[in-house]
Amino acid sequence: MEILLVIIIGLLYAAGIYMMLRRSLVKLIIGLILLGNGANLLIFLLGKIVKGKPPIIGASEKMLGEIYADPVPQALILTAIVISFGLQAFAIILIKRAYKVVKTDDLDEMNATDEDL
Amino acid sequence: MLIAVISGFIFALVIPLIMGWLKPKSTIWAAILPLSIFGFFLSKLPLILAGETLKISYQWVPSIGVNLDLYLDGLSYLFVLLISGIGTLVFIYTSAYLKGHHYLDRFYGYLSMFMASMLGLVLSDNIYTLFIFWELTSISSFFLIGFNNDNPDSRKSAITALAVTGIGGLFLMAAMVGLGQITDVYQISALAPLAESIQSNSLYGWVLFFLFIAAFTKSAQFPFHFWLPGAMKAPTPVSTYLHSATMVKAGIYLLARFTPILGNHEWWNSTLIIVGAITMTYAAIHSLFRLDLKGILAYSTISALGILVFLIGLGTEEALLAASVFILVHALYKATLFLVTGIIDHETGTRDIRQLGGLNKVMLPVGIAAMLAAISNAGIPPSFGFVGKDLIYDATLGMGDIAWLLTGLAIFTNVALLFAGFLAGIKPFVGKLPEKFEKLHLPSPAMYIPPLLLGVLGIVFGLAPGLIEGSIIKPTVQAITGATPDFHLKLWHGFNLILLLSAITIGSGTTLYFLLKPSEGLLAKVTRFEKISPQSIITNLANGFVGFSRNWTKFFQNGYLRFYLITILSFLCILLGYRFFTGVELYIDTAKLTEVSFYEAIVIIIMATAIFFTVFSKSRLTAVASLGVVGYSFCMIFLFYSAPDLAMTQFSIDTLTVILFVLVLYNLPRYLVLPDNNDKIRDGLLALVFGALISVLTLEVMNESVTKEISEYYAKNAYILGKGKNVVNVILVDFRGFDTIVEITVLTIAAIGVFGLLKLHLKSTEKE
């Protein structure tokens, strides 16, 4: 399974980068999201994946048993997901706004300061 | 003594405030500061007469040898008197010259800052504070040259001067560090006894080289002389003070100060003689053809500085005596000539030598001052200049085999200097007064008294050299040579060879003055050679460097996001790829892998397909929907592998993102259709290589063993300390609660931003 996930990670990175290299604003954001997903999965994988042992303490116990999924990467990823949502939401609204003002989706036409608009 | 140095800096800070509040009609009171400093140092005269020195030390950064050590000996005494004395006159003169100027307060501030730095420079006994004050003089000079900051020429000259002297300052630092390395002694006065060990050290050559560059840049020696004529863009009081009497002599001071330490070595002597000789003749030739009064004076100043370097290079006691006397002679007459030029400029509005004449009829006292200075400059008895020139010839004649060559050069330079002095000091005042100048009147006494005073001093010292022999000249020579000198300054030596040479100089100089009339044509002939002058070479170099950096920036910072990404990623790929190829053993530990079940495989396939669609779909809706599918597949993976919280979060967030996307999608542009397939192939290749590298990297990292200390701590204490059974939740809201608060804050800010962007109404201009 790890091998498959590794391939997926590579795929996500490649797809993300490819999308970011396009000239379209929308694609840039999609690329960003893909890249973020890839990074999350990477962190998840590095924490050693374990099947069916969530880091939740049993009702009658006071601490986790021997084998459990690592809680630290999970906490990190959770934070990352939420933050990246903030970023994505802002970016989506921003390009909508930018498009209204400059009427272009082409990144190459957006590399001027507002004086030239 | 410390107060004397520091007061200038304090004054510089305070004066704009005082002037801002009081708006005084006259600013002549500002001269109280240099005058009291002058008085203070005069009061130390008995000390100097007794051959003693004054030493004060303040701890500053003792751990690296930086202390505020002040040291007053004969050499510094000569300089402090010059600085504060001429400073007083310049302060007085400025009050009339720049009367009512908008930034007069600033001007005084810079001027007193300069004076304080210059005092610090000649008084400091620590090699690092010497450097600091040295740089301070360069900086204040920059401000003063660029004082007329609405004039582009002025700004350019200021930058040139700062660049040249600033680079020199760095070299001085290098020289000082080198000296510190050799001896581990940071007090200049303590270095002289170590002269032998310094000169035999292998670093000696470097120290010498660095020190020379510093001195030559500051004192405008060939080939660094070109900043000085440019610096004449400064108001005349500045030219007087900085660029003839004091600052440019800082290099001379440095050389004189280090003569007992580094001097008397073959390299020292020959370099200084050669550079000094080139400078004095080169500048002397140049001064012959100038039409601008200040230009003439600038080149003759360079020439005089060349003579000083040359004399220090000769290194004999006669030569050093001649140098000491000449420093004073030159300061007196050149300051006078500059001040007079300032008056002429101020009153007539021109400095063109061809238009000036007959001014004696309207401003006689100024003419007298100028004539006295010209006489001293020419070395005509009974002026002090005559004494100085005699000593120079005396020094060159004592040089053995090459005496005649050196004396010849000295005579030539002196002839040119005399010519320049006559041109600046006599020509504007004699002859026919042009009609347009007839209505001129005498300027205020504050302007003509200072040059008159200096001019008269130039004669008085000549008639009675005893006045300064014991008090200033002897201690100076003693400080430079280290030995008690035995000489007697005299005006009249009887009929001898030196007198003959003096007569020849005066005769040929005067003849030259009557024969050579300055004209446009002659100037043009000289300027033709400027293509190969050091100035244009260095300017070209500087411009070339600017051009190079512009292209460099244009290439790497071209404003295209893709280009930046490509650059960064390619570099990363090369770096990572190289490392993988050379240093890392790639392997996969199959035993540790978990098995793949059927439904997992399906999720992976769905995910890969969804990624494919996201990238290659022509429709935005399909792409966004596929993006959603990728997100949901993530949920599944998180679910399979024991991360229910993540699955929940991912699920809700992904849904929100897709909804948001779809909501604004119709306000968004369609995809651009760009036909460029080459770009796609290039980007695709780069992306694939990068993705592959990340995969390999991940595999490799998985082989590393991980310490689980932190995880274990959380697992053990989640319930005990945090009273929660879901460890991930406890980490987020309890152990790392502050991080979560910050995270919430960030989200809030993003939400405010989104809200603001949505609600913001465009102004009509922005809609266009």
Automatic annotation (TrEMBL), chain A:
UniProt subcellular location: Cell membrane
InterPro entries listed in its UniProt record: CPA3_antiporter_subunitC, NUOK/Mnh_C1-like
Main location: membrane
Record-level GO cellular component terms: plasma membrane
Transmembrane annotation, as ranges: 6-21, 28-46, 75-95
Keywords annotated in UniProt: Cell membrane, Membrane, Transmembrane, Transmembrane helix
Top-rank taxon, per record: Bacteria
Membrane topology of this protein: Multi-pass membrane protein
Family assignment from sequence similarity: Belongs to the CPA3 antiporters (TC 2.A.63) subunit C family.
Record's protein name: Cation:proton antiporter
Gene (name only): mrpC
UniProtKB/TrEMBL annotation, chain B:
One Pfam family matching this protein: Proton_antipo_M
Location (main, coarse): membrane
Domain NADH:quinone oxidoreductase/Mrp antiporter transmembrane: 124-407
Residue span(s) of domain MrpA C-terminal/MbhE: 680-760
InterPro entries referenced in this protein's UniProt entry, alphabetically: CPA3_Na-H_Antiporter_A, MrpA_C/MbhD, MrpA_C/MbhE, ND/Mrp_TM, Proton_antipo_N
Record's bilayer topology term: Multi-pass membrane protein
Keywords recorded for this protein, A-Z: Antiport, Cell membrane, Ion transport, Membrane, Transmembrane, Transmembrane helix, Transport
Compartments where located: Cell membrane; Membrane
Membrane-crossing residue ranges in chain numbering: 6-22, 29-50, 70-95, 107-124, 130-147, 159-183, 203-228, 267-289, 296-314, 320-341, 362-382, 402-426, 447-468, 495-516, 559-578, 598-616, 623-643, 655-673, 685-702, 741-762
Domain (MrpA C-terminal/MbhD): residue spans on this chain: 605-670
One GO biological process term: monoatomic ion transport
Molecular functions (GO terms): antiporter activity
GO cellular component, as recorded: plasma membrane
All copies of domain NADH-Ubiquinone oxidoreductase (complex I) chain 5 N-terminal, residue ranges: 63-108
NCBIfam families to which the protein is assigned, alphabetical: PRK12647.1 (NF009287)
Entry protein name: Na(+)/H(+) antiporter subunit A
